[in-house]
Each structure stands twice: as structure tokens, then as C-alpha cells.
């Protein structure tokens, strides 16, 4: 007897399944996220009885696999150097890439430029749009100067029609689906965008890409927390997960890899949004330091590194007397817990208290900094603001501060110094530990071993 499909309630935030509706998901704690979906019918004989129908697969050693794959799979250059940097040198044929970002951040613009670059290079690229009409996509292509690109375009959300279209013609080199939350299949009785529909559509498209060797790029919506909407299993299924970040108040956009099976995840790509589309920014340091006021107390330049790319960015601090019982601590672009730890270290090791002051810390340009080497620059900005003494305009800082107050060395020290020289800086405050060969660089090096040495170097 065939078992009929049973209704179930699926959380649209985390993908957890419940047998009955509840106002709050027991797995992730999200409210009003459980939606009723019809479960798939269980096929007859499902279970151990069907094990006899399987077949033994051929096994081989790692050495045999290495011989068979001696010919390397060549990556496909995207035509966008910043995108190539983030993906590790280009897109791997047969791979699946998921890109997420806030609405209006530029995901569709980037992928339209990517598809046009593939098509102009003589490769077959297909762009499936599920959110815009063909006339809207063409209008954007004309604005970007891509109207003459031989990019195949279709507006379709039915998964079966998309797979049939891909199977009918010549194998494509690139398939773009914008977005995966708009796809639906007749096999499931659920609305587009639900967990079951998104999971089924993603699985079918990835299976096609792996079998045919076509590069697949999926666009994913994000939740209010900035995570890609849908079950986490989607990020596990794809090979690369990219996040397109940026503040609408600024023209630049950051492309960051959260997962990459074919390269590093520390790299970032920097783009600038213009009327003709996304422009690549070869030197992001000039972008983040363009409107800097040098003679202002509380401003220090960090010689940071994102992946293998050195970036100079200004860290701004404002320390003012507080009229509240509990002083405010506001942070933009940095970790709030890191700021609290840094204030405690300065208080304990340098006897400089911030207990009666409001502290505001901002990374200029809206960039998000996560590396520990930003501690020294943040400490310099805080000390400069509380003493109302401007720091030298031609000086950069980097180094990690431990709880004991010791300044620990940072990686890529030479690359940071070379970037500082390129932008005209003359002096560097850096950790005392760590080997450094900077003989050819015309820089004044101030080595500090403890946070107390920083106060002496600043003349405080």
C-alpha cells in the first residue's frame, strides 16, 4: 500500500521540520516562520527491502585518481579581475556558485556583466531571470553598454522548463539563475521561496551542472540578519558562497567569499557602483582614504590586510564625557566585544580610564574590519581622542594587543609597509616582535612591545 504525503510545518529560516504549527521555531527561535508544506509521497518499498536493487561501484586508490586527473581542469576567466581574485583565479567548469546580498546592492548588475563577458569571449552563457521581465533586463543592459553582447536571456521560474531549455541546445558554459527563491516545481505542493522548493531547485540545477560541466551561478536573497535565506543545506550543496556587501551611502561594493572549495576565503573584491555599472577598484586604499582630514584628533590609519591584499583604512574614534550612568559604546565596522576588551586593557595597563566617557569607534568608508591587527590603530585613535592630540598625518599603525598589554606581531608585515610607501606615508608604528626586512623602504619604523610604549610613541 502506497503511503500518502503527509503535511508538515517547515521553518523558513533554518529548515527545521515540525509535525504541528507553533508560533516560534524550536530550533532557531524565529517567530512566525513555520509554514505548512505537503511532504513528498513515500515510494513503495522504500527502506531496506530496496537495497538489493543497488549495484557495487568500482573503487580506486588516490594514486589512480591522481593519474586520471593529471590534466588540470582549466579555470574560466570571468573578464572581471576582482571576481577572479575572490574565486581563486576564475570559475571552475561544473562548479556551483551562490551569491547573496541585500536588495539593490548590485547582484544582478554584476552577473549581467559576467554573462556578457562570457558571451563576448565566444562562450555560451544563459541568463534566467525570475524577478524581472526581458524588457527590464535589456534596459539595464543598454545602460551598461552590454546590449550588443550575444547573451541568451529567458524569463522563467518553472524548474522543469529551465532544465528542458538547457538540455535542448548546445551545452552552456555559464548558467545564471536570478534568483533561486523564485523557482518552483510541480512535484512539490509549496509556494515558491519555501524551504522545500528552494532545496529541490538547487539540487536539480547543481546535478545538471556537475553532469554537463557547466558553471552555475545562483542568486540568493538574504534575511534581516544578512544570511542567505533558505535552509543552510543550500550553502553546503554549492561549491562557492559569495556575499556582496556595501553601504548604500557609499559608491563601493565589497565581494567577499564565505566558502570556496577551489580557493581561499580571505580574499575580497572591491567594486565601485557607477551609472555605467560596476567598475573594478584596483587600489582600494585610495578609495578609503580619499576624504581624510589629517589634523583631526582621534583618527589613525590602519595598514590592514584582507586575504593577500593590503588595504589602508582610517579608524576614527570619538571620546567625550558622558552624562549617563552607563557610558555608551558605539561601534561601526568593528567588533564591539573587541572594543570593550581594548578599553579594559588600556585602563589596566596604562592607567587611562574611559569609565566616565562615551566612546564611539568607526571604520571610515563603511568597511568591516575583522583582523586582530587593527588593535594598535584603534588604541592610537582612542588615546588621541581622549587626550585631544592629533596624530601625525603620515603615520600608519598595525599590531594585535593581548590582554597583558603586549603587542603581538601580525602577518604580511612587508606587504603592509609597501602599501604605506605607495600611498606616501613616512612612518609606521608596528610590533617589536617579528622578523622584518624593510631596508629598501624609506620608512621610519617605531617598534612597540607593549601598549605603554604606544603612549610614549604618541607623546601622551
Largest sheet: 9 strands, mixed
Beta strands, count: 21
CATH architecture of the largest domain: 3-Layer(aba) Sandwich
Percentage of β-strand residues:
15-25%
Structure description:
With 460 residues, the chain is of the alpha/beta class. It has helices at residues 62-68, 81-87, 107-120, 134-143, 159-168, 195-212, 233-237, 284-288, 336-350, 375-387, 413-422, 451-457, and strands at residues 7-11, 17-18, 34-38, 96-101, 125-129, 152-154, 174-178, 215-220, 240-245, 252-260, 268-274, 277-280, 299-306, 309-321, 329-332, 357-363, 395-397, 400-401, 407-408, 427-431, 444-448. It folds into 3 domains: 1-43; 73-281, P-loop containing nucleotide triphosphate hydrolases (Rossmann fold, 3-Layer(aba) Sandwich), CATH 3.40.50.300; 287-457, Ribosomal Protein S5, domain 2 (2-Layer Sandwich), CATH 3.30.230.10. The chain has 12 helices and 21 strands. The longest helix is centred in the middle third of the chain and has 18 residues, at 195-212. The chain is globular. 38% of the residues are buried. The model is unreliable at 41-51 (pLDDT under 50).
Write the layout of secondary structure elements.
Elements: E1 7-11, E2 17-18, E3 34-38, H1 62-68, H2 81-87, E4 96-101, H3 107-120, E5 125-129, H4 134-143, E6 152-154, H5 159-168, E7 174-178, H6 195-212, E8 215-220, H7 233-237, E9 240-245, E10 252-260, E11 268-274, E12 277-280, H8 284-288, E13 299-306, E14 309-321, E15 329-332, H9 336-350, E16 357-363, H10 375-387, E17 395-397, E18 400-401, E19 407-408, H11 413-422, E20 427-431, E21 444-448, H12 451-457
Amino acid at each position: 500500500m502506497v503511503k500518502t504525503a503527509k503535511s508538515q510545518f517547515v521553518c523558513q529560516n533554518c529548515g527545521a521540520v515540525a509535525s504541528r504549527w507553533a508560533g516560534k521555531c524550536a530550533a532557531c527561535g524565529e517567530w512566525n516562520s513555520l509554514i505548512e508544506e505537503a511532504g513528498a509521497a513515500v515510494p513503495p518499498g522504500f527502506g531496506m527491502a530496496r537495497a538489493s536493487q543497488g549495484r557495487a561501484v568500482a573503487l580506486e586508490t588516490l594514486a589512480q585518481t591522481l593519474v586520471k586527473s593529471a590534466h588540470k581542469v582549466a579555470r574560466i576567466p570571468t573578464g572581471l579581475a576582482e571576481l577572479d581574485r575572490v574565486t581563486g583565479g576564475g570559475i571552475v567548469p561544473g562548479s556551483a556558485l551562490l551569491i547573496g546580498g541585500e536588495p539593490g546592492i548590485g547582484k544582478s548588475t554584476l552577473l549581467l556583466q559576467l554573462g556578457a563577458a562570457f558571451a563576448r569571449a565566444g562562450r555560451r552563457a544563459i541568463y534566467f531571470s525570475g524577478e524581472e521581465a526581458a524588457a527590464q533586463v535589456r534596459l539595464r543592459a543598454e545602460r551598461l553598454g552590454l546590449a550588443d553582447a550575444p547573451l541568451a536571456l529567458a524569463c522563467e521560474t518553472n524548474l522543469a522548463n529551465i532544465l528542458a531549455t538547457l538540455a535542448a541546445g548546445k551545452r552552456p558554459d555559464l548558467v545564471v539563475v536570478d534568483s533561486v527563491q523564485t523557482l518552483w516545481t510541480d512535484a512539490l505542493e509549496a509556494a515558491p521561496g519555501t524551504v522545500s522548493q528552494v532545496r529541490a531547485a538547487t539540487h536539480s540545477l547543481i546535478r545538471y551542472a556537475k553532469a554537463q560541466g557547466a558553471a552555475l551561478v545562483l542568486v540568493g536573497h538574504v534575511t534581516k540578519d544578512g544570511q542567505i535565506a533558505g535552509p543552510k543545506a543550500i550553502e553546503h550543496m554549492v561549491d562557492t558562497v559569495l556575499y556582496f556587501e556595501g553601504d548604500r551611502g557609499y559608491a563601493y561594493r565589497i565581494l567577499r567569499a564565505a566558502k570556496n572549495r577551489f580557493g581561499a576565503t580571505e580574499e575580497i573584491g572591491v567594486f565601485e557602483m557607477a551609472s555605467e555599472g560596476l567598475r573594478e577598484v584596483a587600489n582600494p586604499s585610495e578609495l578609503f582614504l580619499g576624504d581624510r582630514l589629517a589634523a583631526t584628533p582621534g583618527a589613525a590609519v590602519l595598514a590592514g590586510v584582507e586575504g593577500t591584499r593590503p588595504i589602508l583604512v582610517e579608524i576614527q574614534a570619538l571620546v567625550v564625557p558622558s552624562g549617563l550612568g552607563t557610558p555608551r559604546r558605539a561601534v561601526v565596522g568593528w567588533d564591539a566585544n573587541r572594543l570593550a576588551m581594548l578599553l579594559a586593557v588600556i585602563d589596566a595597563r596604562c592607567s587611562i580610564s574611559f569609565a566616565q566617557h562615551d566612546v564611539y569607534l568607526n571604520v571610515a568608508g563603511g568597511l568591516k574590519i575583522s583582523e586582530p591587527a587593527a588593535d594598535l590603530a584603534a588604541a592610537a585613535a582612542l588615546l588621541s581622542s581622549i587626550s585631544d592630540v592629533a596624530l601625525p598625518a603620515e603615520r600608519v599603525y598595525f599590531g594585535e594587543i593581548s590582554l597583558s598589554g603586549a603587542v603581538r606581531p601580525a602577518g604580511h608585515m612587508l606587504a603592509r609597509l609597501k602599501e604605506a610607501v605607495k600611498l606616501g606615508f613616512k612612518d609606521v608604528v608596528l610590533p617589536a616582535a617579528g622578523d622584518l626586512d624593510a631596508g629598501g623602504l624609506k620608512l621610519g619604523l617605531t617598534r612597540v612591545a607593549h601598549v605603554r610604549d604606544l603612549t610614549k610613541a604618541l607623546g601622551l
